[in-house]
Amino acid sequence: MNPSSNPAAALPDYPGNLYVVSAPSGAGKSSLVKALLELDARLMVSVSHTTRAPRGQEQHGREYWFVGQDEFQAMIDRGDFFEWAQVHGNRYGTSRAAIERRLQAGEDVVLEIDFQGALQIKQIFPAAVLIFILPPSWEELLQRLRRRGEDTPEVIEQRMINARHEVAQARHFDYIVVNALFDTALFDLKTIVHAQRLKYSTQRRSRPAVFDALQLS
Ligand SMILES: Nc1nc2c(ncn2[C@@H]2O[C@H](COP(=O)(O)OP(=O)(O)O)[C@@H](O)[C@H]2O)c(=O)[nH]1
Ligand SMILES: Nc1ncnc2c1ncn2[C@@H]1O[C@H](COP(=O)(O)OP(=O)(O)O)[C@@H](O)[C@H]1O
Q1: Would the annotation count 30 as a binding residue?
Q2: 102 lines ligand 2 (CB under 6 A)
Q3: Is 36 in the pocket of ligand 2 (CB under 6 A)?
Q4: Contact yes or no for 60/66 (Cβ under 8 A)
Q5: Residues in domain Guanylate kinase-like (predicted)?
Q6: What are the backbone dihedrals phi and psi of residue 177, each rounded to the nearest 5 degrees, phi first?
Q7: Domains of the chain with bracketed CATH
Q8: Ligand lying closest to the C-alpha of residue 33
Q9: Would the annotation count 24 as a binding residue?
Q10: Which neighbouring-strand residues pair with 140?
C-alpha cells in the first residue's frame, strides 16, 4: 500500500458502476478488458498515467498517459490521483477527474490497475467491484510473457517474481477469474459485470426493466 498516496474521503454513491481488474503481468487482463469493451458499449476504460516508457505499439493517451517523474510527482502533490502505486519499478496512477466525472454521469468505468491500487479504491469506494484474473499455471504465465515479446528477459524475470506476491492478494478481491481459455474467461467477466449492474441498479435510483415487467416493488 502506498503510505504517501492522498487518502480521499469516501466517494458519494454515484449512479455509475466501478469495476477494478487486477492480475499479474501477462495473465491477460489487457486483452480481456479490451474484448469486454468491444462487447459492452456501456463500459469505459480509464487511461492511467505512468512513468514507464511506452512499448512498441503503445500510444500516448490510448494505453497510458506517459509522463515524466516530475510531472507525475506534481500530480501527486496536487492531489490529482484517485490512487497511485509503484509497480515493477515504475509509478502508475488513476486520475481523479476522469473517473469521478464519468461515474457521476452514470457511466460504468473499468480500471486496469495493480492490487495496491485496487485495495485503495475499495477503501474509498466500497461499491467498487474488484476482479482478480489468475493465469492457469506459472508455466503458462511465463510463456505468455515471452510470447508477448514486449519485455526483456530481466523484466520478465522480475515480473514472475512479483507475480507470486500479487496472486497472494487475490483473496481480498470480490471475484476471481481464471484465464485458461480466453473465451471462457471473457464470458465470466461479462457475467460479473452484468450481474453487478443489475444488483446495484436495484439498490439505487434506477430499476432494471425486468422489475417493471414482473411488477416487483
Ligand atoms: N495502482 C495502479 N496500477 C496500475 C495503473 N495502471 C496500470 N497499473 C498496473 O501496473 C502494472 C504494470 O502495467 P504494465 O506496465 O502496463 O504491464 P502489464 O501488466 O504487463 O501490461 C499492472 O499490474 C497494471 O495493472 C494505475 O493507474 N494504478
Ligand atoms: N487465454 C489466453 N490464452 C493464451 N494466450 C493469452 C490468453 N489471454 C491472453 N493471452 C496472451 O498473453 C499475452 C499477455 O496478455 P496481456 O493481455 O498483455 O496481459 P496483461 O495485460 O495481464 O499483462 C498476450 O500475448 C495475449 O495475447
Answers
A1: yes
A2: no
A3: no
A4: yes
A5: 16-194
A6: -120, 130
A7: 18-203 (3.40.50.300)
A8: 2
A9: yes
A10: none
Residue 179, SS3? coil
Out of 154-163, 180-189, 200-209, which region has the weakest mean confidence (pLDDT)?
200-209
**Distance of CA 113 to CAs 21, 208, 216, Å?**
6, 29, 38
**Helix (H) / strand (E) containing 97:** helix 96-104
Whether the CB-CB separation of 167 and 22 falls below 8 Å is answered with no
Q: Is 51 in the pocket of ligand 1 (CB under 6 A)?
A: no
Q: What confidence tens digit (pLDDT) does each residue in 19-53 have? A: 999 999 999 999 999 999 999 999 999 999 999 99
- The verdict on the CB of residue 57 being under 6 Å from ligand 2 is no
The contacts of residue 127 (CB under 8 Å, 6+ apart) are 13, 17, 18, 200
CA 57 to chain centre: 21
Binding site annotation covers 23? Answer: yes
Ligand 2 centroid distance, CA of 162 (Å): 17
Q: Which three cell numbers stand for residue 145?
A: 510473457
User: Which listed ligand is nearest to 83 at the C-alpha?
Assistant: 1
- Spatial separation of the C-alpha atoms in residues 204 and 32, rounded to whole Å: 28
Query: Closest ligand 1 atom, CA of 150?
Result: 20
Q: With beta carbons less than 8 A apart as the criterion, state whether 88 and 23 touch.
A: no
Can you tell me the ipTM of this complex? Answer: 0.96
- The residue whose CA is least distant from atom 25 of ligand 2 is 148
Q: What are 58's three cell numbers?
A: 503503445
How many CB atoms are closer than 10 A to CB 85? 21
